[in-house]
Each structure stands twice: as structure tokens, then as C-alpha cells.
Protein 1
Amino acid sequence: MADSRTPRSAEGLGSSSPAPAVTRAAAVLDALAEAPSGRLTLSDLARELGIPKSSTSNLLMALEEARLITREGADFSLGRKLVELGAAYLSRLDEVQEFYKFCEQAPTLSGETVRIAMIDGDHIIYLARYEGHPAVRLTSNIGDKMPLSLSAVGKVLLAQLHDHDIEAMFPDDVELPVMTPKSLRSAAELKAQVTAIRKQGYALEDEESTLGVVCLAVPVPTHGAHGPSLGLSVTALKATFSEEQAALMVKELKELAHSLGNPMG
Amino acid sequence: MADSRTPRSAEGLGSSSPAPAVTRAAAVLDALAEAPSGRLTLSDLARELGIPKSSTSNLLMALEEARLITREGADFSLGRKLVELGAAYLSRLDEVQEFYKFCEQAPTLSGETVRIAMIDGDHIIYLARYEGHPAVRLTSNIGDKMPLSLSAVGKVLLAQLHDHDIEAMFPDDVELPVMTPKSLRSAAELKAQVTAIRKQGYALEDEESTLGVVCLAVPVPTHGAHGPSLGLSVTALKATFSEEQAALMVKELKELAHSLGNPMG
DNA sequence: GGTAGTTGTTCAGTGGATTGAACAAGCGTT
DNA sequence: AACGCTTGTTCAATCCACTGAACAACTACC
């Protein structure tokens, strides 16, 4: 009966937005992005977000006119304008451009799958991907999200935060997402890793998100304090993974991180 | 003095939106996307969009809370959430996934630079790019836009439209964008090409956007009448471009287009 | 230092967006 | 076919988001 019973109201009860229509419109976009099929009807949205139908209708018309959503018969889905806007965001990040250039020239990395990611709330989000050999074709795409505890980049970016922030995000009794038998289970495990990562300067993910796959990650030093935290990672097959190779990759990752962190590297 | 004098009002004078706040919020996003530096202040936005400062402030607060924009001191820029939303849109397009798979296996295309694009108002927008050989590294990225008259995909998608739509978009006295000496100049030229493209089933772009580079494109048949028009293109260096190669590429492009057009190809 | 130009924030009044009920149109069932 | 239960649209009354002016905080330039 597809009873998706998640009446998460658009407004957080106490938080009256200075422009409710905008907040609700954003909630509509979120709902469409999270809907498994990517398509919802007016009534679906009105019900899920707790907005009167007539108001929802107005919102949808305005969103459609702005091409932020598309109507297809009775179904609404995300609009193409969002691809433009997302691309506009990425094109402004000089780091992404330099990332590609560096990967091509790096002796070891140029043959591997390298990604650059950014912390985004309690997730990481992939900004760009360089694929040296399509041998290990990844399923993740640009823009995809991943829990912090399940990825090397996530852990290395977490390690950059202050302890009290980590504590706030991962209280001792928190339930961590699990994707493989080797996924971290407890906040304690995660925090132990964080201190280890701080010492050694890089993070390792050992089949914690995908069996047979390992990941190394380093942080990009945040230049000038402003701007969000970036991280870099290499992905490799566990089967063909050696200590010396790892050392080489970490070395090159750190070089890349350094040149990204210092504008005129 | 950076006198960007473009007071393009957010509302189109006569068009009263059913949810003005949303329309204006979308205008804010547009303005940020088009701003050369990607950063604008509250006053910049208020001035450019013709919105009172106090209202603009409200909009920006709501947008920031939704993470659709970010504040950095006094400057506002696009937010990360837009990358997520754009990615969510793309992930729903099965065509993109199949596009990659096909390109890898195609005998000729697998070595070339292939792209899939979509018509979007009076532009095309690139949805995905497959790069066989990084020999001809393109400057265009996913999400980038391009005028219809300047690209092979643009022309081939234009040729899919009805004549009266083309006439409306390109009246005889229209001024076409020019990027190289070989760019089309007049609507007449464009329309002549459109009829030619309809006959031969594919479009050629001969150094019209970049000197030294040629492009071939075919349309993807729109299955079931709904859904936007997609197009495929291959890019090659004019220097190494031969007739037979072109024939092969067009053949494979058409195969790909066919399998994309028919879900269970 | 003083002035004139910014900037972004505050606040009470008002005009228009939002709303709920009533509407019409579409489906599936009995 | 008539029913029950959907769907999305219409419309007048109300409430609240928007507004404009006044505010405070900076910067720049004599």
C-alpha cells in the first residue's frame, strides 16, 4: 500500500521562517529529491509536508515557472534548472579544476580512482571524481551523499572538527549506519579512529562501505579559515592493495591537498 | 567601477506569481549563478532584482536556512544543497546510466569524447560526458549551457521542434551569438541547416564554437511523447577527422540513441 | 574628525498571499 | 450507473508576510 508515513512537517514547529513560502518550497524540493521514484503528485506533497492543497498548488506553479521542478501530467519532479545551479556552484570551486589537472599528472594517482568531497551536515558529498582506470568503476556519482562514519573522507573530515562538535554529532549511544560486516558500530570505535587519524594524518576505510574495496583519504587544509572542509580520497581493490602502494598514494594525496590548500601552490 | 547595470526585475511586470516569494527566491539563485564572481551582497541582489532590502534580507535568511545559499561574511553564494538536488535529478535519468555503459562497449565511440545533452529553453545543457581518450580534453562540464545555434546537439534538437516554434525562437532579424569566424550568423543559415539535418538525420558542427574542433550529433527519439528531448554528440579534432570515421561514429551514435529511446533496447 | 556615502537590521502598518471549504472531474468497486 | 473516494482547481475572507522609512554600524574621502 506504499504507506510512506513520514509526515515531517515543513516547518520545524517553533521555527517561523522569515519567508515561509521559500522554506516550504525548499521542503518541496527535498521531498522530491528523496522520493524513491522522484515523482510526487500535488496531494502527495501536500500530505507529506502538511501544507494545504491550495497553498501547495501555488508553490508548485511558482516552482514550475522557475523551472526548478517539472510537471508531467499529474506528477511533479525536479527540474533541469537544478542541474545548472549545481554546476554553477561547482564551477566556482577552483579546487575542482585544479584537482583534475593534478590527478592527470601524478605518477601513481593518475591510474587510480580519486575523488574530492566536502562535509555537508552529517554527510559528505562528492564534488568531483577522476577515473584513471575504469577497472574499478564506482557506483557513486558527483553530488552523491555518504554518512561520515562509512567513508575514509568522512572520517578524515570528522577528525578536523573540534571534539565537542564530534560529541554533539555522535553521542555514545548513537546508532551508526551499517553497510557491511566491517562497518563501524559504535561511537567509541569511531572516536578511537578519529584520534588515530589525527596522529597519522590520513584515514583508511577497510571494506566498511563496500566489501572488497578500500579507501585512503587526507584532508585539504582550509585556507584562510573560511570555506568548507574538503577531503581527498583514493579507492582501490583490497585484492591488489599493498603497503608500499598505499604509502605512495598517501604521499601524492598530501601533495594535492597541499596545493589545493595554498592557492598559488 | 563594475557597473553591472542590469536591473532585470525579478517579476516580469505583468506576470504576478501565485507565490511571489518563491519566484523571487528563484531569481536570487539565478542572479548568484550568473554573477561572474559567484558572490553578491544583500544590497547587490536587492538592487539588481529590484526587491526592497528588507524583503531581500528575509529571502536570503530563508534560503540560507534551506542551505540553498551560503553566507560568507557579507557575501552570499550558491549552496551545496544545489549540488545534491542537481545530482538527484540526474540520478533519476536512466538514460545517463545506460549512456555510460554503451559508450564503454562501443568499438569506435569508446575512444572518443561523447556527451549527452538536453534542450533547456533556448540553450542546451550537458548531462553527462564520457571521455575515452583524454587527448581532446573538453572545457565544458556537466551542467554547462550552450546556445542552440552553436553546437551540433543544439542544432539537432532544434531540428526536432516544429517550424513555428523555431520561427518564434529565431525570427529573421535575430542576432545569433558568435564564438568563432565560422559561427552561424543569420537565422536563415540556421534554418537551412535545420532542413538539411532533418534529411540526413544528424548534425555537424564545423568549428562553429571552437576552432579546430568538430562535432557530430544525433537526436534521441522521445519515447512515449513525454520527457524532454535528448541529444548525443561526439567531439573530435578537425585535424584527425575523416569521412569514414564520421560515418562510423554516426552509426554508433544512432545505435545508442535507439537503445536510449526504447527502454528495453 | 567630520561628512557623505555606504552597508545590513529593526519595526509597525497594510495590502496581498494563504487558506479552508466548496467545487468539479476522474477512478475503481459493487 | 450510482456510489465512495480520490484527485486538483476556484474563490472570498482573514491573517501574516512584505514593505518603507528610520536606524545603527562601517568605510572612504577630503
Protein 2
Amino acid sequence: MGRVSEAKVKLMDAVLELIWTGSYGSTTIDQICERAGVKKGSFYYFFNSKSELAVEALGSSWQSMQAEVDRMFSATIPPLDRLQKYCDFSYKFQCDMKAKYGRVLGCPQFSLGSEVCTQDDTLQKKIQSILDYKRKYIESAIRDGIASGDVPACDPSTKAQMVMAYYEGMLMQARIKNDVGLLSKMATGVFSLLGVKDGALATV
Amino acid sequence: MGRVSEAKVKLMDAVLELIWTGSYGSTTIDQICERAGVKKGSFYYFFNSKSELAVEALGSSWQSMQAEVDRMFSATIPPLDRLQKYCDFSYKFQCDMKAKYGRVLGCPQFSLGSEVCTQDDTLQKKIQSILDYKRKYIESAIRDGIASGDVPACDPSTKAQMVMAYYEGMLMQARIKNDVGLLSKMATGVFSLLGVKDGALATV
DNA sequence: ATAATAGTTGACTGTTTAGTAAACTTTGCT
DNA sequence: AGCAAAGTTTACTAAACAGTCAACTATTAT
């Protein structure tokens, strides 16, 4: 019973957009409320702080993204194709953001993680866990690639770490330079890191 | 004539430390002044804003760093050794920071760049230019490596972009995870990206 | 010595911010 | 209808914040 509300969802959407198009530190609770079309009293009815809102928003945003990532990294897809698809997806995604906001926005977890890691422990832990999930997809694709003989023998965990550093570094660069072109050939570097000749893919 | 002052230097040191150990958005002018042991009136005597101070501080910090980088990337050193030295230096540097602050701090330009790129144009441009300088060292080493036959033929500019993405991505990951261990084998990935077998170095 | 220059200080202003509380409104249950 | 749960709103406080200014102090060239 009682009345129903979309305020919570609206606040989560608003905070993500503001953090992503700007930064965590520079977005105020008043701004979030204004963007969400929600009064501050309602904000504090649902959340205790900006940090708490951000944690929930990041979690829910990752949850909806995860379905899509699961499809890209399906075990039915050849391992290297998964990585190719993931790179292509990221490129397209960043193009969409650039079209929508006039800005390449990069990876929300990485940008935010770098900003708050020394300041907000619970937020930092949430981001860490999402990044760990993402790495597991890559690691699993590498492991499958080794099994199928597409990837030279290596430690999948270490290699995944490297691939991810490269991938996230590229997105960061694209954000800082506001240049989406850097990302169009992203997969090339991924395959170099794996010691795989580019173009050795089954189908794309 | 008139009296002499170290306030400007102290303010620049303070802002760099605060941004690096925290973030740009979360460091206030009051904080900077307190850390520097300088009164706010003096701050505004020398600078018009936090942004202006940050621009000057970044420039001067890069200038003193550049001497060291020039040595590492000396044309007298075999090209791949330069990259190895640079990776080793970064690793040691981050270890020092961890020892000093209890935190891996990563690359100041990259963290800050990602935070302010959508918000502060002059700061963004300053960071951009420093990052461009850094890339030129890598690009030049790659070009020399191709000339000496140590690096397979490629477009040095594009490859430098990739190497840098990987390098900066690694530093970012280390910052977010507060784990310096990730960086100990950094050069391995650099050489993979260049299509060079690890251990093909003249001397290190 | 003193006057001009360079830098310092503290007290001040107005604004933005986080956070609170009490009155009010909508909704569903009986 | 009427009551209770769930959510909304407005007006408020106190603190943090950026930025200003006039009076003050140290340095040095002459």
C-alpha cells in the first residue's frame, strides 16, 4: 500500500548521467535532484548520501548491461570472436554517447574508480567488483582460446589483466581526447597482446 | 625588490599532492592553503582560481619530470631498452608513492584528465599537451626500433597510441586496486603490442 | 633613511551546499 | 468511508565554500 514512486529510478538515472558527463566530485545532490525532477526531501527519503545512491545506481546499471555482455561472451561463440564483438560493441557505444552528449564518455567504472578510490571505500569496493566481473569475461574467453588452440599458451588471469588495461586505457584516452576514432581498431591491440595474428577470426 | 616568497611553490606542491592523493573536485582552495601553510589572501594574490593553479602546477611538475624522461629515452640507448627503462621507472615510482602515501597513485595526468575533460577546458588542454609529449617519446623509440630492425614494421604513431593506452591503463588499474604488483611485468605487454619477443633486449 | 615594491594577513561578504523536520498528499486495504 | 502505509513538499538550519579588501610587513634600490 501507500503511493508508488519512480523517484528512486529517476535519481539513479540522473546521478549516472551527471557523473559520466562530468565527475563524481562536481555533481551535487541539488543537481541530481533537479535533473531527476525530484525534491531533496525525497532524495533523503530513499538514500542517505550521494555515495549510497551512486553505489545502487552503478549496481543496477551494471545489471542491465550484463545481459548484453553475456550474449557477446556466449560460450557458443568462438573465443576470439567474443573479444572482437566486445570491442566493436564498445566502439559503437562510445559513438552513440558522442552523438548524444557531444562527448566520448569512456568507461564509467574506470573514470569513477580512479576519482574516488582514495576517498570512498564502499563506492570503491562496488566499482572493484564490477571491474572484476568484466575481467572474468575476458579471462574466460582467453582460456577458451587457449583450449581451442587460437591463443598461444599463457596465464589467462595475467593476460586478461593486460587486455583489460589496454581496453580501459583506450577508452580513457578516447574520453580525454574526445576522439572516438582511436577506438575503431581497438581489437588489433587486444590480439597483439594475445600473440594472435589479426584477421585469424572464424567469423565476425 | 619587495619581499620574496615561497608561497607560490608551496601552493603548487600542495595542490598536486591533494589532487593526486584525492581528486581535483574534492580539493578546496581552503584545503590547498592549509596544506601549503599559506593564507587565502596570498592564494588570490598569485592565482585567480584553482584551475589556474593546477595548470601552472602541472606544467612545472612535468618540466622537472621531463629531464629524467629525456635521460631514459636518450638516443644513445637501444630503442627497446628505453621502453624497458621507462616501465621499470614507473614501477619504482609507484612503489615509492605507495610507501609514502600508502596508496598507488597512478598517472596524475590521466586521472585528472579523465576527471576534468568535460568541465575545464584550459586544464584539459594542458593535460592533453603533456600527454602528447609523453606519447612522442614512445613513438620515437618505436620508430628507432623499426629502423634498427628490433620492431616489426608498423605505423609508429598508431602503435605509440596503443602502447600508451596499455601503459596508462595499467597505472589506472594499479591505482584503483591499490596494487603495485600489477606493474612489475608491465614491459611484457608493451613488447607484445610491438610484436617483439620478451627478452630480446640488448642490455638492461 | 626612506620610499617604492612585493608579499602577507585577517576579517569580511554572499553563495552554495548537505542535511532535517513537520505538514501534506496519494494509494491501497478493510 | 476511513485508516494506515508510502511518498512528497516546503521551508528551514548550519556549515563549507569562493572570493574581496584594506591594513600591515618585509625587502631592497637609491
Protein 3
Amino acid sequence: MSLPKSVLAQGKRLLMEAALKLNASTRSLNALSLRELAREAGLNPNTFYRHFKDFDELGLAIIEEMTNQIRQPLRELRRKAAESVVPAHTPIASWRENPRLNLARATQVNRETVKLFFDYVAENPNAFILGIRELHGASPILRRALRKVMDDFARDMADDINELKLMPELSQDSLYDISETITREMFQLSMEYIEQPERQEQICIKAEKMITSLIMGSAVLHGHGAILMGALQMDQTS
Amino acid sequence: MSLPKSVLAQGKRLLMEAALKLNASTRSLNALSLRELAREAGLNPNTFYRHFKDFDELGLAIIEEMTNQIRQPLRELRRKAAESVVPAHTPIASWRENPRLNLARATQVNRETVKLFFDYVAENPNAFILGIRELHGASPILRRALRKVMDDFARDMADDINELKLMPELSQDSLYDISETITREMFQLSMEYIEQPERQEQICIKAEKMITSLIMGSAVLHGHGAILMGALQMDQTS
DNA sequence: AATCCAGGTAGACAAGCGTCTACCTCAGAA
DNA sequence: TTCTGAGGTAGACGCTTGTCTACCTGGATT
């Protein structure tokens, strides 16, 4: 949960961590009082002003740090997962040529990415609580910022699906729509994952199925049903 | 946005409406001050205590009213939409027998339900803002209550899909999972719908596609792909 | 060696807060 | 007709709040 050691002044980080903690356990950011925050951080109330103009600025700082921390690792994981089925730099057969192999790759990437994502959620629950809370919170500034974060995530996902050929070819728009939906759902589910530790495994499975269904359904809807059916039948008999 | 005329004391309704308004425009429920609320409602601060123990109780009252208002109409609409393709009391052919007709029915119900839902959102934006905000808010009580609301919605949806045979047969669990995902997504999208009036039509279409993809994907995943493909091909040539 | 200034503190202020007790009012039950 | 109790008000209480001005400190810059 702790923020990364960086060039941030100590007090600034203390305040950010206190905000994360209070936000998760007690109240949303905009219901937080400056003095309460300072108390939690063990600092003088005025110290807040040395680092932030207002709570939005604090929120933005937290969001930025968190985003930087998770965005790149997620992309790398997708690559690793894809390579674990087909070694890197192997020319990738088209879905039409080898539907079975491609489906296996996609399934593997799906499974591993979901797992990593939830691992990260479990390690940084407070960050996700804050993110999801403020995504629908009262501050338009934070809402906008978090929507952009999710948008970036979705774009990354779409790029990776494209690049790693994780599903039959699709228009850019449709692909992005799917990525957006998946991203939204994953963030939603991360709350359940945090709040119901005893159901974590089920939630993982649910997430995988949701993603698979969405992607498959979209493929069918765009005329790639036959390819998929081929892959699936071969898969079931193996 | 206004709450229904009912047996509620006037002051109670005034307070609930003030809470809706302030929540939507300014701050989340738990960041609301009692005096501010009373001011907005044009009442004495103490009047609050005559009706509610605390803000959670207020929130619960609002949520309950809203749920009663939308739950039944949604169910009825699904029936009407289904009947507009196949008249009531007609014995419904199985998907295997007549995939094309069933797909048409499902598509119609999908389209009309999405439309009705968003219409209702547009009429009661503040209620949805409050609902979505508090679904991820700081109060565990309201979170739990709203999760139950969404759960009920999902169950209704699953029941209707079953009863109206809106998709090929599926295990109850899988069907419920899908309904849950769709419900979650619809609530998410309702925020976008409210905040981006100029994109309302696109959001409708996006929602329809999302639902179709999910349902089709799930059908494929559970071995009903062939039926679907048949229906689709016949559809495309018509 | 002098200076600067980012980071942190101290105290004070008026304003707003939640909540208490006490009082008013008036429709309907007795 | 009297009584009662739900709905609403008034004033006061001690706290907490955000923010202001002023001051301290110690490492880097000159």
C-alpha cells in the first residue's frame, strides 16, 4: 500500500499515505478534513499548504503515482503471458490459419493478466478503493482524471490485443469499446475482490469468463464466429 | 427527479430531495452537513432528527423509494418488448427450432429495455448519481444496500431471460453472472449518459452491443455456438 | 560566511458544526 | 373537550474547522 520511495518530500508522502488510509477506512476524500488528515500524518495542519493547494491536488498526486506504478507492469505481463505459449519473435499465425493456437494464447494471456491485476489490487487495496470511490465521487477534477486513467488502460489493452493478435481482427472502434468495458469491469470487480477475500478465486474465474464471453461474443458479432467455432471444437476434443 | 407523492411527512420528503440535489451537485452524502441539508430544504436543523437517526438512514430511505419506482416498470417493459415480436401466450419455439425468431425477439427486448432504462436515468439523474456514488462510497451500510438493489435487478433480469427465453439455455449460475455484469455495466454507463448528453445515442448503441456480445459470447462458451451461427447467417442474408 | 528558501511549526481567529433542552402547534383520539 | 404526540422551531453549548500571519530550521547556493 505504501507509496514508492521517490524524490517526494517526506511530509508530502506522509500526507498522501494518510489520505489513502483515511479514505479507505472512513470517508471519501472530499469529506476529509485538513486537520484530520494532518493528525493522521502526524504533522501540523499548515504543512498541507506547503504541498497542495487543495484536496483535488492531493488526489491528483496520488492518482498519478499509482498509475505510473501499475501501467507498465501490466503491459509487460501481457507480453510475457503471450510468450509463454509462443516464444517471442516467432511469427504469429493468423487466426484463420491456426485458430487453436491463437485461442490458447489468448486464454493464457487472459488468465495471467487477470491474476496479476488482482494480485496488484490485493497489494494496494487502498489505492483502488480511492480510485473507484473518486471515479464516481463529488470532485469533477478527480472524476475526469480517473476516467483518463481508465481510458489509458483501455487503450493499452486494445493496443496489446492488436499487437499480440489476441482476438480475430476487428475494427479499432469495436476493439476499443471492448477494452473499455473490460477495464471498467475489472475495476468494479477489484472492489469485490478487496471486500470479499474468501471469494477471491471465484472472482478471478468470473472475471476470466466475463472477458472471454465479451471477446468471443464480439468476434461472433463481427463475423468471425466460424473461426472461433473451429478453435473451440478442436479444443474440446483435445 | 422529484420523489413520489406518498404518505411521507412533508419535511421528510423535503430533506430527501435536498439530499439528492446536494449530493448530485456538490458533495457525497457523508460529506454533507446536517445544517447545510436543512438550509437547502428550508427547515430547521433539528427537524432532521424527527425523521432520521443519521445520514445512513436518510440514504436508505431514498434508495428504497427509488428502487420501488423502477424495478417493476423494467420487468414489464421486457415483457412488452418480447410481445411486440411474438404476441403474448403464443407458445415460444425453442432456440434450436427457430433460432432466427428467437434472436429477433432477444434483440428487440435488448434494444427497448436499454432505451427505457436510459430514459429513466435521464428523468432521475440525481437518483442515479447518488446510487452510483454511494455504491462505492464510504458508508458500508449504503454500499451493502445498493449492492442488494443491483443484485435484485440482476435476479429480475436472469428470471426474465429465462422466462422469455431470451437466450439459449444456460446454467443458472452462468446466467446470473451475465445478468450481474450487464446490470453493473448499465449503471456505470448511466453516469456517462448523464454527464455526456451529446453522446446519448452512441451510449445506447454501445450498451446494446455490449449486452449482445456478452450474451452471445456466453452462449458460444457453453456450446450453443452452432445455434447462434445459424441464426446470424440467416439474419445477414435477409 | 552570508543568504536563501523549502519544509515545517505555533497560535489565533471567526465561522460552521452536531447536538442538547425547551418550547410551540395543531390534527385526531379519548 | 381535553389530551396526546408527531412535526417543527429557537437558542445555546462546546468543538472542530479552514486559513491567516509570524516564526523556526537546516541544507544548498552564492
Protein 4
Amino acid sequence: MRALAVEDDPRIAADVAAALAGAGFTTQTCGDGEEAWFLGDTEDFDLIVLDLGLPGMDGLSVLKRWRAGGCETPVLVLTARGAWQERVEGIEAGADDYLPKPFRMEELVARARALVRRAAGRGGAVQEAGALSLDTNRMTASVRGVPVPLTALEYRLLAYLVLNRDRVIAPTELLEHLYGDDDAREANALEAVVARLRRKLGAGIIGTRRGFGYFIEEAGA
Amino acid sequence: MRALAVEDDPRIAADVAAALAGAGFTTQTCGDGEEAWFLGDTEDFDLIVLDLGLPGMDGLSVLKRWRAGGCETPVLVLTARGAWQERVEGIEAGADDYLPKPFRMEELVARARALVRRAAGRGGAVQEAGALSLDTNRMTASVRGVPVPLTALEYRLLAYLVLNRDRVIAPTELLEHLYGDDDAREANALEAVVARLRRKLGAGIIGTRRGFGYFIEEAGA
DNA sequence: CAGCCACTGTCAGCTTGCTGTCAGCCACGC
DNA sequence: GCGTGGCTGACAGCAAGCTGACAGTGGCTG
């Protein structure tokens, strides 16, 4: 597994490289936008971790050029704390996930793993998980063939759970994914969304592990 | 710590073995590709130092076969000076680090240590320890293949023991890990958690050394 | 611009089951 | 045999999570 870490702060770059190495990646670091573009375009990485604030060339531009050039490597974008707009722009430019700084290394590794796994196995637009199927193009869900209308927020939550269906997602991670950590919602907001989702989807789809978080139930259909 | 040095020049092989011995490794040497493949596949080393220029079977082929066979031992590749291509090929074949010849022995030892340290910390998603296996994604444990439901606290305790399976953990350290040292629980709280864990996991998983602390039993199943 | 409607955060009260405490027991080590 | 450190079963307190109601907000329509 080869990873590229694009990050201008050498200390953070080293930390990221070390963490990824621990997860089995051979990591190359790069602190300059132009060089990053070149590397991502010519070499074959399994994952790219991209900081948006860069000298040489802006991270967003680099990302857009990669995508324009047909590069499909999963990209995990690091955004500054509270830069909500950066996150949206990042997704629109083709990022696969984002992580607000500061972050814990375990978090980075977990997301990196998820991205690689996702890229490897399931490229398909429609994701199946037990009785649930999710059409990521139409942004719709259906249970046992019956379509279920979802709101934007509900869909984003469900999609995140499905894409990371092989692990338990902590409420904090979900909150951070749905809203920025800058924008502090009460934890209860999440519970409310989950409750509404459960009511729509029926039982046996979203499970809870007390003290850990939420997950998609696959086994007991 | 066991190391395997694959090197056809007997003088260099002896030097490498001596240097590694100084770093605490028990080193076995081997000058032939076929034999190296067999050894790496059947024995359990903590580190392999591999010279690419070999009689019998090419070093790269040996490495690829190891990786294809599921061997995850960290491999440090020795490449000829300036052979840039060899380095790339080596990494792609699954090498964890490379060292261009000629090198200073201190350099070799430093890299060897780093590799081993990295490998030790590398968290595959599932950790095995004797009859116990721990899925760090799903936050679940299973004993001899039978899944065991754990609460958050039980899981955290067990995970800490498994990650530090090579030593005995003092109760104070565990208390500090589970709760903050600011938050003072009675020592008995820990014993209660251990008791509950033992009941769920069965005997022979968590051991006690009176006066020292707890540890994961690996040998006696 | 006003009115409507769907969406979503907040709140209060409730349920559930985790977890610390306690008292008594066991067993190891001297 | 005795003392101490560790183990265990019972139990109550408490916090995590669930739910139904409600209100604020923003977008859409007439």
C-alpha cells in the first residue's frame, strides 16, 4: 500500500507518515503543490492525504488537476479547524473524505483504511448492506426493494454509516462528519436524526453499541 | 528478536550478523535464494535483511513470493549503489525499507530497529493473542472463533492488555488508562471489570501476577 | 410580501443496562 | 495456620441513549 502525504509542515508530515506506516502504508511526503501534482499524476498511490494550505500551488487546484487528468486515487483532505467552506469546496473538487485539523492520528488511520477499502472493493454506485440498499447517484435508499424517502441530513448520515459498514462509528465522528466540529450541536441532535432514520427504515438496520457508537446491522437480517 | 540476513557475500553476511547481534537480534544467515524463501516462509522472524543480488533465486522474486504467501515480516532491502530502479521495484515488491550499498553498520542497525518498532506498533484491524482475537474496527472480541459481546469499558481494558501483551501491566497503569488519573476510582473497580471479563472470555486468557498486575496468556491455551 | 411546508435542533422525561461499591470469600505465600 | 491481596456476587446509582413534542428556520409558491 503506497500513500502520499502532501503537507507543508514537516512535523505534521512526519507524524502522518509514521501513523500511516503503522497501518501498513509505505508513505512518501511532499511539501510543495507543484511537486504533489506531478507525483500524484505520474506515480500510482493507493491513497493521498492532502493538506489544503500549501505553498507553490493551492491544494484545491492540485486536487482539481488530478481529477481533471483522470486520477481516481482516493484523497483525504485535511482542512483547517472551522473552515467549513473549505470542506465543501474540497468535496466538490473531488475529495473522498475530509478531516478537520487538529485531529487524532487514530482518526486519520481509521479514515485512511476506510477510504482504501472502499476504493478497492466497492466502486459501485449502489451499495448493499443487508436489507438496505443505497443508490449514491440518486441519493436514495430502499429497504427490501421498497424506496424510502430521506432528507439530506438523514441521507448523509446513512451513507457514512454504509460506507463504513465494517466498523462502529463513534458519535463524535458522526457529529464531526455531519456538522463541523466548529459548529457545536448538542449530541442529542444526532440521536434525533438516528431516531427519525430508524422510524423510516424500520428495525434491524441501524444498531447501537452503548459507549461505542452506531453501525449498520448486516448479519441478522 | 530473530533476524534473517540473506546475503551471498559471506564477509558482509558476517558483518551484518555481528551488527544485528549487537542490537539484540539472534541472527541467522543464508546465501541462497531458494533457501531464503523456504526459511522466511516457514520460520518466524521479526526482521529480514535481504540483498537483491543472489544466486539461486533473485531477491525480488523471493520477496514477492513471501508477500504472496502472506508473510508480513518487515524486510529491509539492500540495493547496489545508485540502482534507483531496484529501490522502486523493491518497494513495489513489498519491501518496508531499503539501504543502498555501501552502508555503515550503524545505519543498518538504526533502520532495522525502526522497522521492528514500526511492525510492532502496526495495528492490523484484528489482533490475535493466543485463543483470543480482537477486531479493532468492530470493537468486538472472539475466543476460538466464538464472538464475545463486550461493553465499552471491558473492551478498552482488554484492548490495552492485548496491545501490551508482551509485558505485565500494573493495576495503577490500567486505572490511569481507563479513567484519568484525576478521576480517582477505587482499585476494586478494576478488579470488578477484570472479573466480568474473565467470566465472559473463559479461563486462560487474562492472567494475574500477584503483586505485579495483569497480562494476556498466550502460551498455555 | 405573506403564507405554507418540510426540515431539523432543542428540550424534558423516560428506559436501559453499564459500572462502582460493598461485603464476604478464596487462595497464595510466608 | 494466618494474613494479605485478589476475586466474586449482589445491588443501587447513574449516565447514555431513545422518544415525542415543539418551535425556529429557510425555501418555495401564490
